[in-house]
Design goal:
It is a single chain. This protein has about 160 residues and is of the alpha/beta class. The protein contains five helices and five strands. The longest helix has 19 residues. A five-stranded parallel beta sheet has the order 2-1-4-3-5. It has a single domain, classed as 3-Layer(aba) Sandwich (Alpha/beta knot). It is globular and about 50 Å long. Belongs to the RNA methyltransferase RlmH family. Keywords: Cytoplasm, Methyltransferase, rRNA processing, S-adenosyl-L-methionine, Transferase. It comes from Mesotoga infera.
Length: about 160
């Protein structure tokens, strides 16, 4: 399975960038992973909906016909690490070849993206910056693969 994490805006904090690189290395033995950054929609705070629409169109341009998309969203379903590992296993078992996690920018997702029949997953009831959410997602992907491989990272 190929996994892609798509984020609006590039991480600016060096510790986040280092963490993303580290988890990318650790995930290599398990899965082909790509982290992709889309440009911010620009504009001002008064143009929130227009900005989200512009950013949403950028996500839609990336779609592949055989892709399973998961939106990271505050109102999404929450999983324990074990449940998330089993969810990944289920996607693999049913033949999902391309799995993409979309992480919205600072303003969130456009209504067009939210209205699609894509699964929504929440990393926590807490709110994280979009760059921190990416790091947490990568950590949970690594943890899930360790769980599935019966490795000791998960404790």
């Amino acid at each position: 399975m190929n996994i892609r994490a798509v984020l609006t805006g590039k991480p600016k904090s060096s510790f986040i960038v280092q963490g993303i690189e580290q988890y990318g290395k650790w995930l290599k033995p398990y899965v082909r992973i790509e982290v992709r950054y889309l440009p911010l929609g620009g504009g001002t705070g008064r143009e929130r909906e227009k900005i989200k629409e512009r950013e949403g169109r950028n996500y839609l341009k990336l779609l592949r016909p055989d892709e399973t998309v998961v939106l990271l969203h505050e109102q999404g379903e929450q999983y324990s690490s074990l449940e998330f590992a089993h969810k990944l296993q289920k996607w693999q078992n049913i033949g999902v070849k391309n799995l993409s996690f979309f992480l919205g920018g600072p303003l969130g997702f456009s209504d067009e993206l939210l209205s699609r029949e894509w699964q929504k997953v929440s990393l926590s009831r807490m709110t994280f910056t979009h760059e921190m959410a990416l790091l947490i997602l990568l950590e949970q992907l690594y943890r899930a693969y360790c769980i599935l491989d019966n490795r000791t990272y998960h404790y």
